[in-house]
Amino acid sequence: MTLAMRVSEDIKKDVVDQLYWDDRVDASDVKAEVHDGAITLSGSVRTYTARQAAEEDAWLIAGVIAVNNLLEVVYPTESQRPDDAQLQANVATALGWAPDLEGADADVSVTNGWVMLKGSVDAYWKKLRAEELAATLTGVRGVANELSVVPSDAYEDKLIADSIVSALERNMYVDAEDVDVRVSDGIVTLSGGVSSLPAFQAARETAEYTAGVVGVENELVIR
């Protein structure tokens, strides 16, 4: 057995053990495959929250460089899953009651438990927040987030990039020299290699929470 195969098997075992440990995830119908540090999760879980939790668990394992989440959400037949009309109303209510989404122009539609978000928000983090809120509701099988980000003020790409770099330099988890930041029409691309998952997450969130950002493409790898 080669070292690469041994490492892949060790990673797979740790991922599987992590999934079975996590009380949020019923891992009995989850499969994990590993190739060169890239994890593919397939099978099914019972809630969208569990689907997200499984992906988070995979990222926590040493040696993981990418996670491909192919898990499907299959609700137990005995559960009282709301129909699409009720789920649409529930999502719209949740978004409407969220104080940090005040002023958002979000249109909600639902087909077979899949939530479609359209319309606009004025900050990228609000787009992510809307998806997060929708994902927590009973009956959601998935979320297609097509909200447009339309900042209320004009921002130059260079100023956005400078703001991100400055925030990275202040962040205790990130070595800013490891991260290359490029901005084009408000879309941020992060590239380079960071030393840990906390650094990876901190760099991504720094871009997501910066004013003027309309999209984030995270090409960072964990070394």
What features would you describe in this structure?
The chain has 223 residues and is α/β, with parallel strands linked by helices. The chain folds into three domains: 71 residues, Histidine-containing Protein, Chain: A (2-Layer Sandwich), CATH 3.30.1340; 66 residues, 2-Layer Sandwich (Histidine-containing Protein, Chain: A), CATH 3.30.1340; 66 residues, 2-Layer Sandwich (GMP Synthetase, Chain A, domain 3), CATH 3.30.300. 37% of the residues lie in helices and 27% in strands. It is built from six helices and twelve strands. The strands form three sheets. Strands 1, 2, 3 and 4 form a four-stranded mixed beta sheet that branches. Strands 5, 6, 7 and 8 form a four-stranded mixed beta sheet that branches. Strands 9, 10, 11 and 12 form a four-stranded mixed beta sheet that branches. Strand 10, helix 6 and strand 11 form a beta-alpha-beta unit. The radius of gyration is 19 Å and the shape is flat. The protein starts with a helix and ends with a strand. The N terminus is likely disordered.
